[in-house]
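Quick one - first record:
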Amino acid sequence: MSKENYLYRGNVQIYLQGENALTPVASKNRGDQVAYFIGSKKSKLLIRDFRRAPIHAANHARAGLEGSEFADAFNQPAYAEVSVSERGNEPEKIEINLRPTNTSDDFPVLWLGVLNDAMMPMLDIEWEILRPINSEKIAFTAMVRFDRKETAAVNSK
């Protein structure tokens, strides 16, 4: 029997990092959502995105839309629910549901991606989950608090 716990529920600013950071879950893509693993299925870090612009961008990405255009659509504020399913000794499955949000307050950053050098930059990280994909890559998700000046600097890089 699995038990689900929530790490976070609330508004966030999404920040996706790394080449091939998301791997589509073909069987989970429907008209009202798209699903991805961060890095690969092996990470057990699953994202379900219910936001209209990222769904539209994901469908166009399959038809040749540039990665930067997808990232611009994906890196928008969202209401996030981050849950952990505990299953004994195995690494827990983390599920991140992203839904539309209309507010534009100062949100924490939900940072997602793949690290190729296994080094996390020094940031004010509230929590992080790192999962090895192979000997060279690590999938991750982290909750980071920035002030507005820092957020603008990170999003401009």
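second record:
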Amino acid sequence: MKLEAETIKAIEKLLAAELSEYDQYLLLLKQEQEAVVKLDSDQVVMLGAKRGEIVDRLSQIKDERSKTIASAIGNDAYRASEVIQQGCTAGDRKRLMALVEKIRVKIKDVEAKSREFNQVLGFSLGLVNGELSLLWSASQPVTRVYNAFGSISQGVQPTPPRNGSLLGEA
């Protein structure tokens, strides 16, 4: 299978676009992590939406690449790297495989940074839930908690009169 010059250019253009999208995704992920640390919820929501748009564009690029390969060789079961290895001249193969390798590295980087970001989110969520639990239990004279065996244990906290206390005023 020999690829035509315009097909090679189309594949190269799609690979370059995919690499660019991954770069933007990593940048947004870093900014979103910084916004979480700063507790800037509006920024987190906006950056999350932008990351979603990039994921959609990446999906479109991959679909377009599959269609390009399918129209060139009549089968979309092959990966881009396989088609490049078999259907390109040595110069084109070297140039395109360099892009493919850069994309592979970016994907690994995205996976690692995403795991790190999810850990930051999990830690932040744990802190918030812990604080809410403390506030809730401090406002309740009797707290009921299920233990690991399915029974309820109760804790009674002495409470001062609500009038005149800071918690009562809040």
